[in-house]
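Fold this sequence, please.
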Amino acid sequence: MGIILWIIFGALVGWIASAIMGSSGGILLDIVIGIVGAIIGGWLMSFFGHTGVTGFNLYSFLVAIVGAIILITIVRAIRSPVS
């Protein structure tokens, strides 16, 4: 995918993952969450023997959303104070 498609893909994935997780941070943060989530999701799927993000399709979209949700969960766990 070209850089423009990665930005659009990242924005959509980040926005949906942020909506699912109930967080907000603006369009730039959504793009970063979406792109990093696609990388995490792709790595996770390859770890389990499946293909990762292969383009602008539904399978890649779902893989990226799962990765973005994992990313948001990890960031929340790191940020939250331990009692």
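The mean pLDDT is 87. The two ends are 44 Å apart (CA to CA).
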